[in-house]
Amino acid sequence: MLNGKNILLAITGGIAAYKTPDLVRALKKDGADVTCVLSQSGAKFVSELALQSVSGNRVYTDLFSLSAEHEMGHISLARACDLVIVAPATAATMAKMAQGIADNLVTTLLLATTKPILLAPAMNWAMWENPATQENVKTLSGRGAHMIGPVVGELACGEEGMGRMADIEDIVSAAESTLELSGPLKGLHATVTSGPTHEPIDPVRYIANRSSGKQGHAIAGALAGLGASVTLISGPTNMDAPEGVKLVNVTTADEMMAAVNSCGQTDIFVGAAAVSDWRTVDTEKQKIKKQGPGTVPELKLMQNPDILKTVATIGISGGISGGLSNSARPMLVIGFAAETENLVENARRKLAAKGCDWILANDVSNETDTFGGNNNQVHLITRSGVEEWPRMNKRELAQKLAQRIADAFLSNSGHASAGNVS
Ligand code: CTP
After folding, report:
1. N or C, which terminus of the chain has less Cβ within 10 Å?
2. Which of 276, 278, 308, 358 to mutate to test the pocket of ligand 1 (most atoms within 8 A of CB)?
3. Is 357 strand, coil or helix?
């Protein structure tokens, strides 16, 4: 999750500072590059050398050693990261932050940074409960700082209470979710359908479309990676839910439609599921038995709901009991067009017929390995043009699409009709 992320870890003066080499190790194990900044009082509990050894990076300890701005000034240090973690965050450091005081390297960096900040407070329980500290925590949270802990336990002073620094694993997960919350799609809700639907004929047989769910699941993960809160509604697949995504399992198209309508307010809808177009009028309660040579059962089929078209033209009803009068159309509705011939022409027609904003046309004819394979090749069709994307891994494609979605929202100052952006 933290792959490729640069984390600045500021260590202030609490006994919990002795745990920070373990925190550095855990963050690195999760893929992050960690640079430590050690306050003077933090240095009483953990050594610069230990932090340098585990992080593999220089440890910054003194504001004045940074005065040579050509090397790494405090402003550059504060900005050359994706996230600042303060662990342990003492009452004094939080009080200074709340007041905007910059009187040492750590507080100066905290004032200068434009990056998300995650605080892991640790102190005596009475200091934590003191209204002054609580007021500061409120102020800092109100300004967007993220908090993890403290937790209840035995404290350094021998007393029990709320004040222990959160566990290392919890700080790492909080770092992951802080970064998710801080991506370009922060504050937006995406609903993604994925996988096939199975329409039962009898207890052992069903009608289905071919789909592994690889592409839809990857799109859900990529959107979450850019900070969207994501609901993934999936038909039966062998795939695990990507990190940070809420998974809703369904079997039939009807269930998928109901799950979409239960998602509530949605800004981005991606219909990647291979929804079965038909289901049987009646599902047999018992297994249909063969009736002898040459006799085949006649299946009476009926149309399933067109989920993409419903979302694009009517909207999402906002809860099972929401009713259509409460429906709201997501700002950006994206579908797929699985075609075996006349790819672009058929997909263009589908874009218009379904009323969606973008459609990803993919050739699923037999000679491609799109179904079940790891690669995909698509044309992105919007109302204003067609782009042929090169063949690529489904994960890469998901990331390219998620970035494209983020660009569309950003270029519309976040939110106006992203669908008009090609
Ligand atoms: N779709 C849907 N509900 C359906 C059928 C399709 O939401 N009942 C969505 C798919 O998730 C996809 C898009 O519509 O995003 C196009 O699906 P596709 O199978 O390519 O086309 P169909 O609509 O089924 O049309 P046709 O079978 O005629 O090609």
Report:
1. C
2. 308
3. coil
